[in-house]
Amino acid sequence: MSAAINRYTVVAGRKTSGIAASVYSDAYERQLQFNVEDIQRDSTAHWLDYIMAVTDQFKKTGKDISGFEAAIVSNVPVGAGLSSSAALEVAMAKFFCGIFELEIDDAEVASLCQRAENEFVGMSCGIMDQWLSVHGKKNSMLKLDCRTLDYDVLALDDKCCLVLADTKAEHTLVESTYNILQQNCFDAASFFANKKEGITHLRDISVSEFAELSKGLDEHLLSKATHIIYENERVLRATEFIKDRDLFSLGKLMYDSHESSINNFGNSGEELNIMVDAAKTIDGCYGARLTGGGFAGCTVNLVDAQKAESFASKLAEKYEKHTDIKPEMHICNLADGAYFEKK
Amino acid sequence: MSLEEVKEEAKTMCEFVVCSKDEVYGIAPGRVEILGNHTDYNDAMS
After folding, report:
1. Euclidean distance between CA atoms B46 and B39, whole angstroms
2. If you measure CA to CA, which chain A residue comes closest to B35?
3. Counting Cβ atoms within 10 Å, is residue A215 exposed (0-12), middle (13-18) or buried (19+)?
4. H-type helices in A214-246, by residue range?
5. ipTM higher than 0.90?
6. How far is CA A154 from its chain centroid?
7. Binary contact (B41, A126; C-beta < 8 A)
8. Residue range A202-232, pLDDT digits in tens
9. What is the dihedral of CA A178, A180, A182, A183, to 10 degrees?
10. Does any CB of chain B come closer than 8 Å to the CB of residue A113?
11. Is A232 within 8 Å of B44 when comparing Cβ atoms?
């Protein structure tokens, strides 16, 4: 259950003659070049991997692209669990669609950017980040079936809003641990596949059959599977709560999800827990949990819209008092997905 | 920083650093999930 937010990556530039790409990153204050026809990784600039990755996928899928010049500016916080990587990939893909006059549907843009991250960057991410950046809808949450890519657009009650609280904690574990957690899930799914026909992923196990089927499963894998199977159920239940505008029940699911991240999946962190515990004590908060890969980055808080400013201020104060870290608060609007504009 | 401000900054960087006239903007938002943590690669609901 996700939403695009009004924090953006913008790629501005033009097509050039030849096969040279020249890209400037405002965040890193560097301008670098590469050959579109012979892409060679630059070990000194990880950010350029995402540009090269999308370029590589466009070439691999037979898209007619050549040289270009571009500048990249973004206000999506990096390393905060808000999919800054996906925003960069998708903005680049939309930029290519604009300058090379390519007609690529949104589903293919999302899929192409996911493959770019999987194959070139080496991060085995799912489709969700790129898909949301492409398909976001203003003022709405989107429920995505990651198997079929069917989705529901659910208007979020305008009496509430999302406040993102960036813990500014160290974020070193995400990339190294993400692939391990993913493999744990796949190993657990293999265990279940041997018990019942038709299971390929943890998604295929219902809450009602989980206890019976999980007998004999290694305790470590059991905890990972517990998180995923119940998290899937929480998304389904949240759909009804959003439709019914039942913000207290929706918020309770968010608290439950965070507890499961702590106790089952193991992807929370001390600062995230302090931020969620502090949010619980502040008037106007319906629910709070970590968002993104976990370990550090942001918490997402479902808050009474009338109280968002005071909530953000009180939460920042409480968090800083506990940790001596100054957090960054973002009161967000839910936004439309990616696009390109021509002058 | 609003979207218009991000675009204006990109336009400035493009013209003065990359030495190019900007002709196209590719624009993509970040995202947040309120539920559905690590469910995507499990083929589940997100």
Report:
1. 6
2. A1
3. exposed
4. 219-243
5. yes
6. 18
7. yes
8. 999 999 999 999 999 999 999 999 999 999 9
9. 160
10. no
11. yes
